[in-house]
Amino acid sequence: MLIKIPQGWELPESAATPESVFRNRRALLKGLAAGPFVAAAAAALPSAGALAADPPDPSAKYYPAKRNEAYKVDRDITNEVSASSWNNFYEYMPAAGNITAQAQQLKVRPWEVKITGMVDKPFTIGFDDLLTKVQMEERVYRHRCVETWSMTVPWSGFALKHLVDLAKPLGSAKYLKMVTFNDKDMAPVQRQFWWPWPYTEGLTIQEATHDLAFIATGIYGQPMPKQHGAPLRLVVPWKYGFKAVKSIVEFNFTDQRPTTFWETTGPREYGFWANVNPAVAHPRWSQAEERPLGGNRKVPTLIYNGYGEQVASLYAGMPANEKLFM
């Protein structure tokens, strides 16, 4: 008889609810006028006939990847319709919502990834070539947005530490900076001059090589849909979702802590660390509870999004002035 001993980060299956109408989220930048938001969203819509059908995906053979049962949670997986129709992707719309149509402007072939900075030898590699050099797997993770919505999804991809090993960083490299594409023709919202494009995020080397840090290339047993950040995005489940940089084109190893997109945009509200903590409120709303996509029921948020046993030691002994939870 198999006896399952729950981990500290697991929740009962009853914590999630079936698909229903999901209420609109708070706008992240509430103080901005509505006009630029509306204009930008309209500009991001592809014109009729402007999009050609994508060719067959050469990475399709990797999916579904074998699930790694060490990474699962005792919570219902969010249904695919809910997860695929509620996304943040600021290059295509400056608010969360159904951005599927806008995101089809993203061209994911060819896609090259640059490995730069403090490494043994900088190089550029095609996305499809990269997949031949890593071990693909599926992991079920929680995802917690800073705006209090959440989901539980099966990501396909590979451990970020495999890419770090491939890059061969120098011992003096302390941080990994990740950068999204910058193409105003492919992503019209990037024409907005008040945003610090391209989208940039960063981790310490210790975070980047942690077992939970993951590069997702697919979801629900299929290659990554464009609205989720194809062809590859960061997944760090103990942090708020804005850390999960999408459509990455560069991994830069550096000894300087990167100044990220949201640190530049809202430094009093969004910091470098962005670890989940229900006891530390956002300046404009509580983080004590979250609403899983697909329902209207709230559930308690857990410290480090339920992954505290695995990651809390990363931050032991940090200076008191480091704002770990924003």
CATH topology of the domain at 79-146 and 155-264: Sulfite Oxidase, Chain A, domain 2
CATH class of the domain at 79-146 and 155-264: Alpha Beta
What proportion of the residues form beta strands (DSSP E)?
Answer: 15-25%
Output the number of helix runs.
8
Number of strands: 14
**Pairing-aware structural class of the strands and helices?**
alpha+beta
List SSEs in N-to-C order.
HHEEHEEHEEHEEHEEEEHEEH
Low-confidence stretches are 1-44
Please state the overall shape, judged from the principal axes of the Cα atoms.
globular
Largest sheet descriptor:
7 strands, mixed
Mean pLDDT: 87
* Distance N to C terminus: 44 Å
Helical residue percent? 10-25%
CA gyration radius, whole angstroms: 19 Å
CATH architecture of the domain at 79-146 and 155-264: Alpha-Beta Complex
CATH superfamily of the domain at 79-146 and 155-264: Oxidoreductase, molybdopterin-binding domain
Outline:
The protein is α+β, with helices and mostly antiparallel strands and 326 residues long. The chain contains 8 helices and 14 strands.
What keywords describe this structure?
Sulfite Oxidase, Chain A, domain 2; 14% helix; alpha+beta; five-stranded mixed β-sheet; single chain; 14 strands; 326 residues; 22% strand
How would you describe the overall organization of this protein?
The chain has a domain at 79-146 and 155-264: Sulfite Oxidase, Chain A, domain 2, CATH 3.90.420.10. The strands form three sheets. Strands 5, 6, 9, 10, 11, 13 and 14 form a seven-stranded mixed beta sheet that branches. With 326 residues, it is of the alpha+beta class. It is built from eight helices and 14 strands. The chain is globular. The chain has helices spanning 34-44, 80-84, 100-103, 127-131, 160-167, 205-208, 261-265, 308-311; strands spanning 87-89, 93-97, 112-117, 123-126, 137-144, 149-159, 175-180, 200-204, 214-219, 222-223, 233-235, 248-254, 289-292, 299-300.
